[in-house]
Design brief:
By secondary structure, this protein is an alpha+beta fold. The protein has five helices and eleven strands; from the N terminus they run αααββαβαββββββββ. It has a seven-stranded antiparallel beta sheet with strand order 1-2-11-3-4-9-10. Strands 7-6-5-8 form a four-stranded antiparallel beta sheet, with no helix packed on it. A hairpin with a 2-residue loop joins strand 6 and strand 7. This is Signal peptidase I.
Length: 287
């Protein structure tokens, strides 16, 4: 190309900004932003990742808190469920607490005492003379008791079920076993002592001033039955007072268990079992 051809190329107008930018070898940032504004833009751009990380950490904290709450609720749910199962198993097969409502067992058991009853007797171990047992009032020795109503009923039943409150004595009685199946039990000799299979029994646990002869009797205990009496003989409506119903006998199948100790109050702690007065009793009258 010669000099004349080169000089014939069109030359853009110098005053056109659009064309000047198009032909410019590189673009430059507009010079309308100040240095401080540029720093602000750069700082904002750099702060975006940190802001997102902070938001992520906050979300993680909330999630962790929710998980901790759920885990805590789950743990307590498991604990309560296990406690309910254990309480049910303990009450069904091992021990149950009862509250003493009357003075028929004074001075061995006082009104208001809370006692522990082993259900292993008679389930695994036989009942013996001298045992203090709790039994269901299947023969209706007790007068009818008005049933609780409303919230108090459900609260009481729930606490008893959980083992947090002793069962009331409304449908249960507590007495000492005097006669076993086959025993001949008689009242009384000249010393006001009960005779079992013609052997007199000296009972050290009786309340002071108690008299056996207030209600004389002579019975032979049938199979599957027990003859029971309270330690406070002057104030105990026991087998002696209910001979017109089932002969005054208690069905062994109605026995809940054997009293093994007073739990509350601590000052009354004792094991009411006393076999020593019956050690000389040979056995059944027919043996």
């Amino acid at each position: 190309m010669n000099k004349d051809e080169t000089s014939s190329l069109p030359i853009p107008k110098a005053g056109s900004d659009k064309e000047r930018r198009r032909y410019s070898p590189q673009r430059v940032a507009p010079d309308s932003l100040s240095t401080s504004q540029m720093k602000t833009l750069n700082a904002g751009a750099m702060s975006m990742p940190f802001k997102k990380r902070a938001e992520a950490r906050e979300a993680q904290k909330k999630l962790s808190l929710s998980r901790r709450i759920l885990n805590t609720v789950a743990e307590y749910t498991v604990i309560i469920a296990v406690a309910l199962v254990l309480s049910t198993l303990i009450r069904a097969f091992l021990f149950q607490a009862f509250w003493i409502p009357s003075g028929s067992m004074k001075n061995t058991l006082e009104i208001g005492d809370s006692v522990a009853v082993s259900r292993l007797t008679p389930t695994l171990w036989d009942i013996e003379r001298g045992d203090v047992v709790v039994f269901y009032d299947a023969q209706k020795w007790l007068p009818p008791v008005p049933e609780q109503q409303g919230f108090s009923k459900y609260a009481s039943n729930t606490l008893e079920f959980l083992g947090l409150r002793p069962a009331s004595g409304d449908q249960f009685l507590v007495k000492r076993v005097i006669g076993l199946p086959g025993d001949k039990v008689k009242c009384c000799n000249d010393m006001d002592q009960v005779l079992i299979n013609d052997k007199p029994v000296s009972e050290p646990y009786l309340a002071p001033g108690s008299y056996n002869s207030l209600l004389p009797f002579e019975v032979t205990v049938p199979e599957g039955k027990l003859w029971v009496m309270g330690d406070n003989r002057n104030n105990s409506a026991d087998s002696r007072a209910h001979q017109s119903v089932n002969g005054g006998m208690v069905n062994i199948e109605d026995v809940v268990g054997k009293v093994v100790g007073v739990m509350w109050p601590y000052a009354h702690w004792k094991n009411p079992t006393n076999h020593s007065p019956f050690t000389e009793i040979i056995g059944r009258v027919d043996e």
